[in-house]
Amino acid sequence: MSVTLFQAMSAPPRAEGVDFCRAHPLDLRLDGAVLVTGATGFVGGGILFSLLSRAEELGLTKIVLMVRRRAGKTVEERLQKLKENSMFDGLRETFDQLVVGLEGDVSQQNFGWKEHEKSWPHQERLKAVLHCAGDVRFQQPMQQAAVSLVSATLQVQQLASQWRSKRFLFVSTAFVHAVPPSSTEALEEKLVELRDFDAMELYRDAMSHGSWAKTAMRELGFPNTYTFAKAIAEHLVIRACEADELDVRIVRPSIVGPSWAFPYTGWAGDKPSTIVGAGALLARRGVRVFRDGFDHPCPVVPVDMVADLTVRALCGASNAEPGFELGFMSKLLRASSNATVFYYANSILNVFPIHFLDAVRICLERIFSMFGQKLSKEFSTVVRVLVSCRSLPMDYHPFSSPSTPWRFKSCLRLAEEWDLFEYVLICGRAAYAFALNPLQGPERGYAKEFSEIRICSKETAMTDALLAFVHPEASIFYSIAAFVVRLGLSWISLTVTVDGTSLSSITSLDAPLVLCPQHRSVLDFVIIGLMCSQLQPLLPLHLPHVAADAEFSNLPVLGWALSGLGAFFVRRGGGAVQPDPALRAKVGRVFQSGRPLEVFLEGLRSRGRRQLRLRTGLLKALRDISQRTVALVPLAMSYELLPEDESLYKEMCGLPRDPLRTLDLLFWVVRGLKDELPPVGEAFMRSSSCQAVLRECERWPLLLQAATLTPLRRRLPRPWAKWLVEGPDDSGPQEKQQSLDELATALCAHLTAAEQAAQNCIDALRKNGIVEVTEEHLVQETKPLLSPLVPSAVSRHLGAFFVLNSIADTKFIAQYVDGRPAAQITSQRYKALGQQPMYRLWELFQRKLSVPLTVRDLMPERPMPDLPKPAEGLEEILAAVLPQEGRVRMDADARLRAGTGHGLADIWRLRTRLLERFPDAVVRPETEEEVQALLNAAMSYNHGVGFGIIPVGMEPDSMELSTLGGWIATRASGMKRARYGNIEDMVLEVRLITPGGAIWQRHGDPKAQAETAIGRASTNIGLPAMVLGSEGCLGVITSAVVRVRPLPQVVEYQSVVFPDWDRGASWMREVARMPAGLRPASCRLMDQNQLQLAQALKQGSEEISAWQSLRNSLKDAFLHWKGISLEDAAAVTLVFEGHRAEVNLQKKEISKLVSMAGGLWGGASAGSAGYTLTFAIAYLRDFGLDYRILSESLETMVPWSTIHEVWPAVKMAVQREHRQLRLPGKPFMSCRMTQLYDEGGVLYMYLAICTTGLEAQSALAAFESLEHAARCAILNAGGCLSHHHGVGKLRASLLPETQSLVLTQALRNFKMALDPSNVLAARNGTWCTTALEGSDSQSLASDAHESED
Prior knowledge:
- With 1349 residues, the chain is an alpha/beta fold.
- The protein is built from 51 helices and 32 strands.
- Helix 13 packs antiparallel against helix 14.
- It is globular, with a radius of gyration of 39 Å.
- The two termini are 68 Å apart.
- Its EC number is 2.5.1.26.
């Protein structure tokens, strides 16, 4: 690789696409119609673009494309797909005006037409026929090559003559010459000599048995049937055209490469071909060696130059001979320059591994077929593609590395702005794009890919060793050091990338280099050193001498190693009083060595990534001792997550920095060997991106680093801006960016609050008589606040404290990964879900719902409507009760959040902006007195009319979104009820504030309640029993006494697989018969749909590889051998908790039941994944809403006597209702048994439907109709209305079927006594208006707009 490649990376912008064509007119006319074959191919696509972009200049009246049916697509569909290709951006209107299709297959006799002689189907006169269709495979059988390359060409020529075309143009190849010319000559533009062989006789023989044609091919020296058939076709076409008096042109391109200027720079078609295919195969390790001669050039021509010269020939431009050739010289270096070496390397590295892999594929397919299974389709496809490519290196050999170079006489002239090295990069970038995604070529704007040079990434130890020890100019000591460094960086998964375009300026420097990077981490000098060492063969960069802190010199072993690598140690701050002569002497010795210097101008690492004032003592010493100009090279480094972020965070908090110790390095090495180090991310010289769950010590540096950027910093208060960036002010006009303004406003609010928090600490100290506040004292007082910025407030009388959200937003998204749609979770909040793309999850949705889903077909975001103003006078009344700022909120965000639950109806209305229910205000009382005052104010508002108070008592989708008060109000239950009980088993006491006053039992004083608890008392009806399930209608729960248990010493997961749901349910019945102390903390049975969903989610934590695919296939074969199919199987996830002996005993007893029932152990990872599925369900529901998929859960308690009847009844009822509503696809339903009782089990069911095509309100009504049908089926089959979700409003219409009217009226009278004005107007459960109206299904729809629970 040449240094000039770096300069080519930053090549100046130039015209491309239509602009290039207009800037380079052809000055020719055609004035008529043209017929083109092969326009959907690579060369044909370039020609079509040239014709369209020059249509007005050429006088084109119509462009007819002969296109065949393919893959079940009609001609019209293929033309539409062709038009939608990004290459035709800006030309689609011209495309619609000129381009029409003509169905025909050039490889079929008479093009596959039924009419023997078909007339020209258009009024516009046909002026020219261009034939560029053909099979470009080199090793076709002789007869097939004759049909596709000779017969097809002659047939198109005959059609041109029949339709009275003026001209016929045939795209051949420059390699119709069998061998290159002698070293001093160039190939002429004339027909190839066939010696004594007649072209027609050769063609006839090739169409029959082909033996004589093969003999002729060998004698004439042709390397393959492709070039041989093209040579024959040229002879026969010229004969036929001369006989028909048809003007003929032949275009002979050499190896066709990516475009130089149009359709856009680097366009390479829709699939890799020629030189791009070779590069893509090398990049994907499909083959490992290609040969391209070092001593002669490889003839490559850009496709757009082929297209332009073809259009010239089509319009009548001609050279002296009837044909002309295209080709120019590009040196594309390959590994094997010696022919013998290449032959053996190709056999060992390319052919043998592919043959071996194909043999493995065949064996596995036969083994799998014995068990009635199929081998992974993806694995089989990859192997077959590799088999088809195994001969490509040898096929390319005659063209890329002949004994003498290919030289052609040609009329081709390169563009004025032509740059050989830029085109080499274009070819490489195109190959890289296809290596990343073989189904999609490089798009517009991709040309910056190679500007980022990968220096280091996570590789195997063997790869790291090869990269370190094969360096051409490194000593053994440097190689060992490089290997150790690469190994260490791989432990923390650090990827190092360099902006190659910015390095081009270094190539032209003729002066000693002084590297001046930012100082963010102890890894800085490691990364810079590795970069210089890796790029040394290309750039004048040697391993630099690093000015390291003297503290490193005191470290045993490490200090010696750094010194051996060229580091010299300086004392920071030593020149503040007077120049340090020792420093001058060290700099002088280093400067004389000729190696670059590495200087950290910021001195100490900038705490929290602030930008500190530069320390220039070392540069001054260099200036004093140098006798020539030196070049300062600034390096902007950025890596968001650092290994020592925690230590930096401690420094920010004012805590003393831990000294450097070799022992810490040893501990770090041990953790690396155990693979316990967290991934760091990416180190990049200019920018980086990282998706990770951040700790407090990682969020702070990231936030402050963002605040140092000028556009944001200018919007901050001046003292904070000066603190973030020390040095001169860079005041200037502010950019008008709304997003930055909003971010700065929010940040300023945090900073202001931080200042006040720190000032309050200082004032408190001074009130206690402290006159001078020291940093240590302030840190001591503010430790409970966790304020990392407070120590800086001492010197500036300014402190800061603010709290960021503990976790980033978590959700599922869909995207294309390697050309396939996949779901992926956006954070690492759930380790079991991992970060890998979940292809199977997306496929599962489509398969189970029986609807096509498109990744980009997201439900559009709609603007939030304006909310009505709050009631008049309400704000003043609430402010009188809660005068503190921020305790009363009437903004739209607060009102919507408080008025929206997490049930499907509320979330869907919020997403579709069908807002019907929201409060006027949101209050946050902090004491019982404030709650009581709010209730009194509510009763007296508006002369006694009052206003309603709705306590927030949502139905929780998961543990993360629920509260203790919500659990009590809904009479909730948990996943580990078997060990810890339901909420009624935990609550001992509760306090309730009602409009009539406080209700309590056993303890009147809340303080006494907090200090003592009575486990049981026989005094009237227990208050907890009255409050449990009240759903916010009786009062506000302000406190409760609950039982707590110690954290378990042991938590273990496990799973069991059963052939079907019924056998799994029978096994669960046996577990329920066990004594309570022997049952697992959680025992949950999943049906086949839940199991498949869990397996699809588990894919996110698995590395996608051929080995993993084979492993999964073998696992499926084993299950099939055991009589278990994943299409019918059910699985149980188990969680064991407690002491070690307790857990061991539980596992032992459970194992006995598993053996008796014939189940199979599924492993701990499967158990953990199944358990995590519970938390992911809420996110999956929201993910489905993006694609108009509505889903919700239903739960019920069912006696053991009817446990097998409920779920089939529910499925039948939902399917029947779904058919009656004529909804798209089919409903996706799944079920799991979540909790076990002596009397029965709990069924937790999920229902999902696709509502594409329905309006938002209709979609919700349809789902609620299905949900109502499911609940009716549950009740009719013997289940209860709700086990732990409560009644709310959606179930209230069915409540009369589960309790007597007398009880309902008694409960209503009870509420009337506590809340006569109905201030607590949640209207849930018994107190919902539909609870007394019977079970009419229409009542459910009338209240469908209300929130659930």
